[in-house]
Structures are given as C-alpha cells and as structure tokens.
Design brief:
Chain A: This is AP-2 complex subunit mu. Chain A: It is found in: Cell membrane; Membrane, Coated pit. Chain A: It comes from Saimiri boliviensis boliviensis. Chain A: One of its GO terms (cellular component) is AP-2 adaptor complex. The complex is a heterodimer of chains A (about 425) and B (about 950). Chain A is α+β, with helices and mostly antiparallel strands and about 425 residues long. Chain A is about 20% helix and about 40% strand. In chain B, the strands form four sheets. In chain B, strands 11, 12, 13, 14, 15 and 16 form a six-stranded antiparallel β-sheet that branches. In chain B, a hairpin with a 2-residue loop joins strand 9 (about 830-840) and strand 10 (about 840-850). In chain B, helix 24 runs parallel beside helix 26 and helix 26 (about 470-480) packs parallel to helix 28. Classes of the chains: A alpha+beta (about 425), B alpha+beta (about 950). The interface of A and B includes residues 330, 348 and 373 of A.
C-alpha cells in the first residue's frame, strides 16, 4: 500500500517521482528532502514520520530511495520491496548511480508501473521482468502474439518466476554458501555474542521446468530422515547444525518445508538467493585475537596483539586486517610485527595491520608503543574494541550442502547429467575483541 | 515584523564608526575575530580544501591534522612562535568547525606572553573562544591579561580588554572589574584604549552588575562626555546610559553634559566632525545614544539646560524639514534615526506642548512617505503621542490619513499599527467615525488581526457610547461581519449592558429580532438574540409582526443549526417565554416533550428539557413568575473585554497605553493625591470609566433564583466570564480597614503590582514583611519603595528598613522587612510610596501601611468585678469616647467576636450583665508608657445600630481606637 516512490540524488534533488495514490501530495517530495536529506545525518531512523506521512528510505551509494505512505503499512514489506527494487535496477543497468538513473529514467517509470500497482507490490522477479520490459523498446513490436500470450500466461500463472521452454546445451548449477561471522569477545577470551548470517546463492542454467531438492545438515531434517537406524542418527547428529531462523526465495514450496522439512523448488533462471539463515550455536571462530594493553604512566601505552587462526591447516584465509584503536591524544606510534605490514593511520585514530594470507592453525603477533600527549580533558579513553576483517573458504556455522537433486517428469536429462558446483565463503562481519 | 522593520536603526546604532587603525571592540567579538584570523594566518590550502567535501572525509582529515599537531606539541623540541601560532590557529579553526579540542591550551597561554601582535592576537582569540572559566589555566591567563593591561602598549591593552569582554564571565568580572575603571579614567590612556575599556566595562556590568564597584570613577566617567575624541564619547555614552538606568542619582550630572554635547553636534556643520559624519549627518550614532541617555531622566530643571535641550530638539526637527543632502538611503536612515530618537525623548518628557505638536506634524508627514518602515515607525510613535494630553488633538488631525492607511496599505504590520493608532486616538468626538471605519475594515482585514480588531471595536463602542442604541447596532454589526472572531466576552458584555440599562432594552429586543430574520445568522447572534428575547421579548410582543409565537418560531428555526451550549441557552429562553407569554406555553411544552429534547444524547440538554417541562407543568403561575423573574442587574466590574485584550496583547502595548492615559489623568488632577492612589481613584475623571466597570460601585445583591430554574442556569452561563476576570482590587482604603483586625494578606493589587503583607507584633515592637510581586512579564527598573512618616507621626513611630533590589524581574517577588517600634501613641498611618519604571514610563503607587495603634495591644483577662472597678476608675469625661453608628455589615455575633479578638483586646465573657454585649480589655504598649484600655460594644439588632464605648487613660488613644474599631462593624 505504498502511496508513492521517490528517488533523490545526494543533494536531495528529485530524480524519479511516482505517486500511486491521491493521498500523497506534491509537497511530500519536498518534505522528505527538507526533513531528512538536508538534515545531514541527523535523521538516522530509516522510517520518518512527517505530517502524518511515513517515509521509508534506503540509501544506495549516493542515491536515496524513499517509499511514502499515509497508511499503516507493513514496514518490513516496504523495505523488502525497496531492496528488491534496487536488485531489479542493478540487474538492468548495473550500478545504481545518479547518471545511470538519469539515463534510464523512462525505463524506470515503466518498471515502477509494472512492479507496483496502486501501491501493491507485483512481480519483481528480474528474469520474468526482462521478458517483457526491455531496454530496447522496439523489440516488443517484433514479438508475436504467441510470445505475448505466453508472457501473459506466465506472469499470471502459478510459476511466475520461470518461463517455459528454456534450453541449455550444458545443464549447470552453481551453489555458493556465503557466510559472515559476527563476534564480540571479552579480553579474557569469553564470547559475549556471536552469530553467523548465511546466504545460499544459486545460479541455475537448467533446461525445461526442473524440480530441485536441496538438502543440508539441518538438525531437524537429519533427525527426521535418520529415524531408521539409531546408529546412523547419532553419527549424523554430530555434524548437524541448529539453524535459528531461515527465509526462502518465493520459489520454495513452504508447505512442503513445513510438513517434511524438505526444501524443494522450481528455480528461476539465472542467479537468485535461495535462502538466508542465521545460526548462533556451535560456531567455529576462525580467528582468535588476544590483546594485551598496558598503560605506562600517562604518556605511554604499550599494546601487544596476538592472532591465532583456527581452521584446517590446508585452508588459507585472505585479506586479513586487524584494526587496533589508539587513544585520541596519541602523538606518535612505533610498531613491530612479525608478519604482514602495520602502520598508524592517524585519520582513523587506529593502527592497521594487514596480512595478505594466513594458513590455518598458525599465530602471529604485533607489538606497538604509543606516545601520548597530556591533555586537560579528564575523561578516560573508552578503549574501543579491536576489530578484524578476513575472508576464507570455510563455513563457520558448519553448514554443509548434503545434496541438490534435480528431477523432472518431462526432462530429457537426469540428475547425473547436471554439472554442480559448490563453494563456501566465510567472511567477517563485525568481528571485534574488547581490550 | 516589528523587529525587522526597526532593524536598520537598531543595528546601526550598536556598531561604532571605525576610524582609527585599531580594531574596535564589536559587540560580538568571536565571530568577527574569527573572520579576521582566517585572513591573517594562512592555513594550508589542502587542509581547507578537504573540509566540507563530505562529513567522513572531513573527520578523517581533521584526525590526521590533529595527530600532526599533537606530534608537534609533544614537547621534545621547542617550537618557534610562528609555528606555535600556526598550530594554535588550526586548532581554533577545527574547534569552530564543531570538533572537540582537548589540548593546546598551554601553548595558547604561552602565546599571550609573546611580543608580536599576531601571536598575541591568536593566543587571545583561542583563550576567548575555548577556555572555560573553571580551567586551571585561568590564573595564568589572568596574569597575562594583567600584564598587558599594565603594559602601556595600546595594542596589547586593547587585545587584553577585548579578551575580557568577549569572555565576560563572572570570574573575569571578579578579576578585572576593579582594574578597568582605572584604565578608563586614567589621564594618560590612549583614546582607543579608553574606548575599548568603556565597552569592556559595559559588558562586565551587563553580565554581573553587582561586581562592578561604584566609586569615585563614576564622576570622572561622566566627564568623558566632554572628551575630544568622539569614539570615546560614543563608547562612554553607552556605558553611562546603562549605568544611569540602575543608579540615576549618581549620573545626574551627565544630563547637562549630554545636552551640551548634543547641541554641539546638532549645530555643527556637516563637515566639522570629519570621520564621524555619516552621509552628511554629523555623528548619528552618538546623537542617538545621547538622546537615549536623556530618556533616563525627567526634563532638566535648570532652565538654561532645558532651553538648550529644547533648542537642540527644535534644530533636529528643523533639519528634518530641510531637503536631503544626499539621495542615498543611508543618509535618510541616519537622519531619521536621530529624529525618531528625538521624538521619543520629546514624548518621554511630555512637557513641551510646542515640541509635541511639531513632532506630531513631522510624523504626520511620514505617514505618507514612500518607505514602509517610516510609515510603520511613524504610526508607532504616534500611538504614544496620542496618549499625551498636549498632542492628543494634534494626532487627531491625521485621522483621515490613518484611515486611508488602513484601507490602502499593503503591509499587514503597518495596517495593524494603524488600527492601534486609531484605537489610541479615539475619543468621544470621533468614536462613531473610527468605529465605523474599523468595522468596514474588518470585512477585509487579515485573519490574524481580526479578533483583536473585534475586541477593540467592542471596547470603543462601549467606552464612547453616547447613545446605547448605537452601541447595540455596532455590536450586532460586529457579530454579523466577523461572527467567528467575536469571543464569548464580547457578547457577554453586550448582555450585561442591555440588562443593566432599562432605556435600551426595548430597542435591543427589536433590533435583535430583526437581525435574526436574516436567513443565515451567526451562532453568536443566536445566543445574544435568545438571551435578549428571553428577557425582554415582552417589550416587543405588542407588535403583531413580532408576536410571541413568531418570536418563538424564529428562534426555534435556528435551534437545530446550533451547537450544544447555544441550544442549552435557547431552552432556557423557551422556559422564560413560558413565563412571559402564557399563550405559547402549549407549543413550548410540545417542543420540550419531543423525543429530540427529552431523549437527547447530551446530558445537559436532556436535563434542561426534563426539568423545564416539569417546571412548566407543575408550578403555578406565581411560582413560575418568581423563578423566572427578569435577571437582576449585573454588578459592575472591569470590562471583561478589556481584560481579554490585555491578555492577548501582553503587558506591553495596551496596558501601557491605558496606564499612560490614567497617569495623565492623575497629572491633570494636579498635585500629589494623598494615600489612596489606587486605580479606582485615578479613573474617576473619565466619565466613561464607570462603564468599564472600574468604578467601585457597591456590589448589587446577586440574589440567584431559589430553584434550579432558568434564572440560576442563566447565571451559570455567565459565571464563566465572571471567574475569568479577577475583580479589580478595591481602593486601598478598603484594604487598610481590613488590616485593622488582621495581620496578613494582600494590601494592594493592580495590573502591574501586587503588595502582600505579613506582620507580627509583640508589646511595643513589630516586624512587617512586605512582598512586592511583579505581575507582568517584563522587569521593573529603579524599583524604590519608600516609607514616609509624616511630621506628626515621626516622633511616635520608628520604622527601620533596608532598600530592596532596584530590579524586579517579570513574575518575580521581592521581600522587604520593616522593623517597627512604637514610641508613643499615634493616630496617622505611615505611607508606603513605590516608584518604578515599567516599560518606558514611571509608575507611582502609594498605599497606607496598616500600622495602627491597636497592633500594640496586649489582651488582659480580668473578672467581672475587676472590670467594672477599673471602668469606674476611668470615669473622667475626657477618658471616655462613645460612638453610636449604623451597622455596615450583617450583625453576626461570631464575626463580631472574631473582630474584637483580631483587634487585639481580650474578649471577656460573662462580664456584662447583658449577654448580647461584648466587653474587651487590653493594654497598649508603647516605648514610653503603657495605656490600659477597656471597651464595650452594645449591638441593637432591631435598629441595626451599635454603641461603642471606650475608656482609656489617654484621650487621644480612646479617640483613635474608637475610630478604628467602629469602622469594622
């Protein structure tokens, strides 16, 4: 029930303004501009209420997208729609930038007409949209009647996200398990909070209307299947994980998931996000940071930080970066590290230690001496936590893809003919250790 | 709007024309100084360049720069003065961008001791922006400032003074308030330093006036007005004006100096003053300031000075007539600024009819000027002129122009001023014209000022009504034109007046009846109509065109269109009709019986319908007639409309005007009136004042009808207005009498001031706490209460008190303690005389302080035998005073007992053979003697009389006590 949608550039100039309902006046455009964009960082909430009108905004690089409504809408839905809108635009013309939006501005209006109707979100599946909203406007004239009717039946049909009659010479399937690890640890090594947010992204190049079934080591699924032999069940339980919550792409049959805990679906063509999940239990922390901070008098600070990698020695983590904050009255820093490079970055008030590559079960150390300037400010330095960034080929939540089967009654290929690729990528989210 | 119109003058008067090479202390040093710094110190281009690109980039760049500065300030290597200055300056810049700076203070303090001007300047700048008062460095800073003040280098002294002024904290005032006056009056101080010192002292005085010591320097400061250097004079005038507002006595000598200075400026040729001539106007700022200074004082008494001042003012007025020497707007602005200030001085003095009339004519010319600002200011000044008796007539000659301004003016704020002026200039002679013009303007007036105009029209119509039919017509017109803006008070007032005036009732009923026949009429009109027809419909019922049934049908046709309160009022009208016209009773009963009334969703309406229906069926005609009798006249009280207008406008404009009018009338009466100088006494000269309810008319017996009948309910309808308006404090004589028998309470109250008392007495000593409450939102200046004992009273009564703070903030209360000693018996009461400045005018209030002889009473208990024994001892005819008088208050035994005890004497029970009589005894303590005192009060209930007998050992005492006590019953 969005009343309208506006797109602004970073200066607050309106690039796109599409109003779906009469209760949104012209002045709503200016109200958002004046009260939110020009307030320069003052407004931090994504939802703003101005004169009984609600504005939901997201920001992509320098572009503001704002959905407006006077009704009591489901805010989560509006944001989901805005993100989807960004995805769709990115799929059509790449990066969302002011220039791209200006160049495609007729097209964006066309898109907005299609994906929102009287404020109600419609089909926002990129693959499908691409069949009838094209950037080359002339093409539609060449479409035959059958093609048009086909599009109509597909869009209005049960499986709106995939059209029929797709054919590939090579049936391929890519599965990426992307995870980001978030951690807050006490100086003594106690985990204060930790969770992994994971995404399963799939790229499918399959002919026809295949029916897929995805299996992972979810505790409940395994218990359900492993009822047969108790021995097997106990063995598999060790490897199974407890997923806190998960959300699926619309193609997944939720009824089946509810009844059988099986994830079965007809995938859209191309890339899509199959599921999102969050785990908080039994997380393997890939790195351990051990800080040691000592204040010598009030003019000197000694810092020693050890990092230990905690994964299979055969794996290599990359792009490791440790950020050690320095007090605000630092007047000079000397750093010594065994591995990688470290320097004092005055503009961020931190020492940054970079290591290109690091194998599992290793450890490395840095020690620094900071000189401080006496100040007349009595308040103590708050000691912000040491944060860390990394990337590596492991899944911290221990999620494993057990199988991905492809069936189909009318397919001229079988499960074995499909080439499947699976890859795990673990990244750091907010990975911090107090010191 | 008002502020921005006046702005050109206000702004220019505060800045000083700069002539010397030295910077002059501006009022807001920080910003100006910051601008100067950016020019004088080069900040590396890339540093500024990064700032402002985006918030994040700015923070990064600043963090980097701060780290760099920290490493420079680390202290292992000594920095040279230039780099120290550079980095301190950068820190200051970063601070001004809104980032916290927590180091570098020490370096800045070091800069203070440098000998280079630029370094010292940056040091002072940093200190005045960044160092807060509780810093530990304040001692070092103060030391550096002291050194600079003593340095004799005018540049350094100037910098130090600027720093003191821009910090301007209490600590600074504590440290330097003694020093700066010395610098100011020292003979060898340079002119530019004197100038800075004067402004610096002004600043310190404004922030913490208590810390600036008054001393012998004050007299020498006054002589700065004679200084050669006009810059010094300008600065000194600002200082003296502020000082003189608080201590007018000490700076009295400045008047003659200011006058002579002013006359020298005014008479000088435009080229004489060279640097201080601004667009051919000689020293306009100084002239304005001198004129302001003169406004702190009454007209000079010395005829020579007075003549010279008059001459000056005449010259200024003459100059306004001369053709402009330049077409530039600055020229006319400067000239007019001086002129307007001169006019306000003339108005302030209010003593030279000739000048007042000339000023008025000058303003009259401005009324048609092209400049909107000038028209606005002219109207505003005329408003004050209109309240002066000398120029009132002169102002009235411009009525056509003002009315024209109302019609043609484009600027709404000017139109509003025109309305104010019309209101101010209105009197009996031109009231019909002005009211008519206001009414016609009302149709097109801006919505924002409509309500105010409505109130003004209502007040004027009432105040100057010669003929009440005119009044009724005007108000009905008002309701017709701007019904939505007619507040409750206005129509309450109409009804009060109609009810109270027999001669107008018939006409009112007829007019209202006619007005109601319009197809669409405003709800307020229905209310007025309903009420008036309910009361006086019988007066027009004889005419077949307005027979009772027609009246009823007319009212009832509006019934369904009205809101609930109006419907309730109409229901009461119906039941009144039942009484007035028995022939329509069945019709009305039918209406009341209908479901829409009897089962109305609104409880109030339902209750009225049920009760009225029942009343009309059950009660006999006699009862009905008693219950639904015509409303008794309303007690006179302050016009509720006036109160509303005052509330709306705040205390500034209207009250001033009213007060000014009143004050004038006191002046006309001539001479200081004795004690009861309350408002009620002042308003008597105006014959119309009674209408406003100011007169202390005896309260009419407001006997409400006994049942819950219509009368009572109608009273309810009006009780809102009554409670909204506090009854005006009665004359202080009344209050004085009340205090004879009690010690605490409110002694005096008017719109501005409330005086409360709390007192206690023991033997011959007493202590009285006087509380002065400022009821307005603006402060009173020069607030000086003085206790005056007449020569007769002086030897008998000792009063001791301390002076109170001369400023009373808006809404604040100050307390004064008076210690009282009774030396011997006395008859008169001391007078408390209060003078203060409120807004622009002096206010004067005198009240009798209720210190009476009976306060020193000590009760003595004695038996019947003793009493009569002593009674007989005091049988000498001189010792006895007897008074037989009629009771003013109802004769209630308990009240009488309480009064006698409150009077101070003991009440002796079962002494007198007649139990109805009251007997009391006590001793009056004075320092010299003690006087025994016996009293006897015999009430006579049949004749409503009292006989009071007093026997004391001293004749005068008996006499006085008898007077005091007999006034109580």
């Amino acid at each position: 029930m969005t009343g309208g949608l506006f797109i602004y550039n970073h200066k607050g100039e309106v690039l796109i303004s599409r109003v779906y309902r009469d209760d949104i006046g012209r002045n709503a455009v200016d109200a958002f501009q004046v009260n939110v964009i020009h307030a320069r960082q003052q407004v931090r909430s994504p939802v703003t209420n101005i004169a009984r009108t609600s504005f939901f905004h997201i920001k992509r690089s320098n572009i503001w997208l704002a959905a407006v409504t006077k009704q009591n809408v489901n805010a989560a839905m509006v944001f989901e729609f805005l993100y989807k809108m960004c995805d769709v635009m990115a799929a059509y013309f790449g990066k969302i930038s002011e220039e791209n939006i200006k160049n495609n501005f007729v097209f964006i209006y066309e898109l907005l007409d299609e994906i929102l109707d009287f404020g109600y979100p419609q089909n926002s599946e990129t693959g499908v949209l691409k069949t009838f909203i094209t950037q080359q406007g002339i093409k539609s004239q060449h479409q035959t009647k059958e093609e048009q009717s086909q599009i109509t039946s597909q869009v209005t049909g049960q499986i709106g996200w995939r059209r029929e009659g797709i054919k590939y010479g090579r049936n391929e399937l890519f599965l990426d398990v992307l995870e980001s690890v978030n951690l807050l640890m006490s100086p003594q090594g106690q985990v204060l909070s930790a969770h992994v947010s994971g995404r399963v992204v799939m790229k499918s190049y399959l002919s026809g209307m295949p029916e897929c079934k995805f299996g992972m080591n979810d505790k409940i699924i395994i218990e359900k299947q492993g009822k047969g032999t108790a021995d097997e069940a106990s063995k598999s339980r060790k490897q199974s994980i407890a997923v806190d919550d998960c959300t699926f792409h619309q193609c997944v049959r939720l009824s089946k998931f509810d009844s059988e805990r099986s994830i079965s679906f007809i995938p859209p063509d191309g890339e899509f996000e199959l599921m999102r999940s969050r785990t908080t239990k039994d997380i393997i922390l890939p790195f351990r940071v051990i800080p040691l901070v000592r204040e010598v008098g009030c003019t000197k600070l000694e810092v020693k930080v050890v990092i230990k990698s905690n994964f299979k020695p055969s794996l290599l983590a990359q792009k490791i970066e440790v950020r050690i904050p320095t007090p605000l009255n630092t007047s000079g820093v000397q750093v010594i590290c065994m591995k990688g490079k470290a320097k004092y970055n005055a503009s961020e008030n931190a020492m940054v230690w970079k290591i290109k590559r690091m194998a599992g079960m290793k450890e490395s150390q840095i020690s620094a001496e900071t000189e401080l300037l006496p100040t007349n400010d009595k308040k103590k330095w708050a000691r912000p936590p040491i944060s860390m960034n990394f990337e590596g080929p492991f899944a911290s939540s221990c999620l494993k893809v057990r199988y991905l089967k492809v069936f189909g009654p009318k397919l001229n290929y079988s499960d074995h003919d499909v080439i499947k690729w699976v890859r795990y990528i673990g990244r750091s989210g907010i990975y911090a250790t107090c010191c | 709007m008002c502020a921005c119109v006046a702005a050109p003058f206000a702004v220019t008067t505060t800045s000083v024309p700069r002539t010397g090479s030295l910077p002059v202390l501006p009022e807001t040093t920080t910003e100006a100084a910051a601008l100067r710094t950016r020019k004088s110190v080069k900040i590396k281009a890339p540093f500024c360049y990064f700032l402002g690109k985006s918030k994040e980039a700015e923070i990064k760049r600043i963090n980097k720069e701060l780290a760099n500065i920290r490493s420079k300030f680390k202290g292992d290597k000594a920095l040279d003065g230039y780099s120290k200055k550079k980095y301190v300056c950068k820190l200051l810049f970063i601070f001004l961008l809104g980032h916290d700076i927590d180091f570098g203070h020490m370096e800045a303090v070091n800069l203070l001791s440098s000998n280079r001007y630029t370094e010292k300047q940056i040091g002072y700048l940093f200190i005045s922006v960044l160092v807060n008062s509780n810093s530990e460095l304040i001692r070092l800073i103060n030391n550096a400032i002291k050194n600079d003040l003593a340095s004799r280098n005018p540049t350094f002294m100037g910098l130090a003074l600027h720093c003191v002024a821009s910090v301007g904290s209490r600590e600074m005032a504590e440290a330097f308030a003694g020093e700066i006056p010395r610098v100011l009056v020292a003979g060898d101080t340079m002119d530019s330093v004197k100038q800075s010192a004067a402004l610096c002292l002004l600043r310190l005085y404004r922030t913490s006036s208590d810390l600036v010591p008054m001393g012998d320097w004050t007299s020498r400061v006054v002589h700065l007005l004679n200084d050669q250097h006009l810059g010094v004079v300008t600065a000194a005038t600002s200082l003296i004006t502020t000082l003189a507002q608080k201590n007018p006595e000490e700076f009295k000598t400045s008047v003659s100096l200011a006058v002579s200075r002013l006359s020298r400026i005014v008479t000088s040729a435009s080229t004489d003053l060279q640097d201080y001539t601004y667009y051919f106007v000689p020293a306009p700022w100084l002239s304005v300031k001198l004129l302001r200074l003169l406004q702190c004082y009454p007209p000079p008494e010395d005829p020579a000075v007075r003549g010279r001042l008059t001459e000056c003012l005449e010259t200024i007025l003459n100059k306004a007539q001369e053709p402009p020497k330049s077409k530039k707007v600055q020229h006319s602005n400067a000239k007019n600024a001086v002129l307007f200030e001169a006019i306000s001085l003339i108005i302030h003095h209010d003593s030279e009819p000739n000048l007042l009339v000339r000023a008025c004519n000058q303003l009259g010319q401005f009324l048609q000027h092209r400049e909107t600002n000038l028209r606005y200011l002219a109207l505003e000044s005329m408003c004050t002129l209109a309240s002066s008796e000398f120029s009132h007539e002169a102002v009235k000659t411009h009525i056509e122009t003002v009315i024209n301004a109302l019609k043609t003016e484009r600027d709404v704020s000017v139109r509003q001023r025109a309305v104010d002026l019309l209101y101010a200039m209105c009197d009996r002679s031109n009231a019909p014209q002005i009211v008519a013009e206001m009414l016609s303007y009302l149709e097109t007036a801006d919505y924002s000022i409509r309500e105010e105009i409505v109130l003004k029209v209502a007040i004027l119509a009432e105040k100057y009504a010669v003929d009440y039919t005119w009044y009724v017509d005007t108000i009905l017109n008002l309701i017709r034109i701007a019904g939505d803006y007619v507040s409750e008070e206005v129509w309450y007032r109409v009804i009060q007046i109609v009810v109270n005036r027999d001669d107008v009732q018939g006409y009112a009923a007829k007019t209202v009846f006619e007005a109601l026949q319009a197809p669409a009429c405003h709800e307020n009109l229905v209310k007025v109509g309903g009420y008036i027809l309910g009361e006086f419909g019988n007066l027009i019922a004889g005419d077949p065109r307005s027979s009772p049934l027609i009246q009823f049908n007319l009212l009832h046709s509006k019934f369904h269109l009205c809101s609930v309160p109006t419907r309730a009022l109409l229901l009461s009208t119906y039941i009144k009709f039942v009484n007035l016209f028995p022939e329509v009773k069945p019709t009305i009963q039918d209406v009341l019986r209908s479901d829409s009334q009897l089962r109305n969703a609104d409880v109030e309406l339902q209750q009225r319908a049920v009760e009225y229906l029942r009343l009309s069926t059950v009660a006999s005609t006699d009862i009905l007639a008693t219950v639904l009798e015509e409303m008794p006249p309303f007690p006179e009280r302050e016009s509720s409309i006036l109160a509303k207008l005052k509330k709306k406008k705040g205390p500034s404009t209207v009250t001033d005007l009213e007060d000014a009018k009143r004050e004038r009338s006191v002046d006309v009466n001539g001479g200081p009136e004795p004690a009861p100088a309350s408002t009620s006494a002042m308003s008597t000269p105006s014959p119309s004042a009674d209408l406003l309810g100011l007169g202390a008319a005896p309260p009419a017996p407001a006997g409400p009808p006994p049942s819950s009948g219509s009368g009572g309910l109608l009273v309810d309808v009006f009780s809102d207005s009554a409670s909204a308006v506090a009854p005006l404090a009665p004359g202080s004589e009344d209050n004085f009498a009340r205090f004879v028998c009690k010690n605490n309470g409110v002694l005096f109250e008017n719109q501005l001031l409330q005086i409360g008392l709390k007192s206690e007495f023991r033997q011959n000593l007493g202590r009285m706490f006087i509380f002065y409450g400022n009821k307005t939102s603006t402060q009173f200046l020069n607030f000086t209460p003085t206790l005056i004992c007449s020569d007769d009273l002086q030897p008998h009564l000792n009063l001791q008190t301390k002076p109170v703070d001369p400023t009373v903030e808006g809404g604040a209360q100050v307390q004064q303690v008076v210690n009282i000693e009774c030396v011997s018996d006395f008859t008169e009461a001391p007078v408390l005389s209060i003078q203060f400045r409120y807004g622009g005018t002096f206010q004067n209030v005198s009240v009798q302080l209720p210190i009476t002889l009976n306060k020193f009473f000590q009760p003595t208990e004695m038996a019947s035998q003793d009493f009569f024994q002593r009674w007989k001892q005091l049988s000498n005819p001189q010792q006895e005073v007897q008074n037989i008088f009629k009771a003013k208050h109802p004769m209630d035994t308990e009240v009488t007992k309480a009064k006698i005890i409150g009077f101070g004497s003991a009440l002796l029970e079962e002494v007198d053979p007649n139990p109805a009589n009251f007997v009391g005894a006590g001793i009056i303590h004075t320092k010299t003697t003690q006087i025994g005192c016996l009293l006897r009060l015999e009430p006579n209930l049949q004749a409503q009389m009292y006989r009071l007998t007093l026997r004391t050992s001293k004749e005068a005492v008996s006499q006085r006590l008898c007077e005091l006590l007999s006034a109580q019953f």
